[in-house]
Amino acid sequence: MSDTAAHAGSALPIPAHVPPELIVDFDVMLGPTTLDDPYAPAWEVFEQCPPVFYAPARQAGARWPGAWICTRYEDVREVFQNTDRYSSEAIFPFLTMIGETFRALPPQADPPEHDKYRILLNPWFSPKAVAQIDANIQAVVAELIDGFAGKGECDVAHDFGRIYPVRVFMRLMGFPEARFEDFLSWGYAMLHDMTDLEQMKWGAKSGLAYLRSFVAEMRETPGDNLTSRIVHGEVEGRPLTEDEIMGIVFFLWIGGLDTVAATSALMFRQLALDPELQQRLRDQPEAHADAVEEFLRMNPTVNSARMAKVDHELHGVQIRKGEMVQCLVATANYDPTEFEDARSFRLDRTSNRHLTFIAGPHRCLGSNLARRELRIALGEFLRRVPPFTMKPGADRTVVPGLVAMKRLPLVWDVEAGE
User: Fold this and answer.
1) d(CA 194, CA 188)
2) CA 168 to chain centre
3) Amino acid 316: pLDDT
């Protein structure tokens, strides 16, 4: 019997052991939408698709014929946590496409190798370390709000959400603020312009060229910043190799460019479309921490993948070694077996174990920083800006995930805040 079988429209033949009834065309799941609830399509997938199904690849040149998609909370959590069955070594194929040989670290290292890089980096992202840069975050957020609070309008995605987390990140890493616009340009080309491969490559290569020059600078002139700590760092009693240094710095650079920015856009979009929720959070600043957790649960930005290390069964489905398993956090975070009234925004959740920051050994390194940035942005914006709505006629299109929204124009009555 052949190891593969043809499937109409697929880029590569589908493995023959995949049951036809589990093959689902999956192109539209996270496509652009103007819905008030951008994750409504995810709910439809949860309701209409098998818990684990197979999505054929559609792109020419795909490395795999497709991937298994798991949609239920417990299955997604299992994939994230079970490092005996699942590997994250293959989750950055883009680096190979641009001719790089290093791995993004720590995410592309499986335990126990992964642990040594987390030990090196964890002190910079602990709750205590994040608290020490609280004033820095506050200052960046306040400066930006000062620039538009009295104008009665702003593009909160372009002029606020994409800016404040990148500035905080640049200061943490020691990057000069003069390169801010370059960082945004490179990051946008790499993460947002995904239909243009040449632009993606330009963004990545330009960013990497700068990162290499900055690493060389920190090697010659150490500074009091995280990049210098990495350049002069050690794991298991030895200096980091050049590939390890670039793998860590590149990964942090990617993480610092867009995740909080995308979440901010989705958060403010939800508030602009829900004036009752917006007013409730104005009246209850003590609830902002819980609110941020709900925004994170309802607006996950990353659906991470793993590669099967062994043949095994997941939710009754046979998965073979070497096959990709895509974890749909976008559906897992809405699973009613884990979250009561899952499609509603609730501040009274006694347990909010969402998977937006993944789970297990690869849980997001910057989760403490991201939470703090979002809480400060939410609190200061609601404190300084009167009740706001979307600007009439504004494009409401949103793409759930890292792409989110490029523009999100808001308007408010300046006199209402006086």
Assistant:
1) 9
2) 17
3) 94
Residue 352 is part of which domain span? 4-417
Question: Domain tally for the chain?
Answer: 1
Question: Tokens 């050994």 belong to which residue?
Answer: 361
CB 36 within 8 A of CB 344: no
DSSP character for 229?
Answer: H
**What CATH number is given to the structural domain containing 49?**
1.10.630.10
Chain centroid to Cα 164, Å, comes to 16
What single string gives the DSSP state of each residue in 93-156?
Answer: HHHHHTT--PPPTTTTS-TTHHHHHHHHHHHHHSHHHHHHTHHHHHHHHHHHHHHHGGGTEEET
Q: Residue 216: CB partners within 8 Å, gap ≥ 6?
A: none
Q: What is the DSSP string of 306-370?
A: EEESS-EEETTEEE-TT-EEEE-HHHHTT-TTTSTTTTS--S--S-----TT--GGG--TTHHHH
Q: What is the three-class DSSP state of 52?
A: strand
Residues of the chain with pLDDT under 50: 1-6
Identity of the amino acid at 158: H
d(CA 278, CA 61): 46
In tens, the pLDDT along 110-152 reads 999 999 999 999 999 999 999 999 999 999 999 999 999 999 9
pLDDT for residue 258: 82
Q: What is the DSSP string of 168-180?
A: HHHHHHT--GGGH
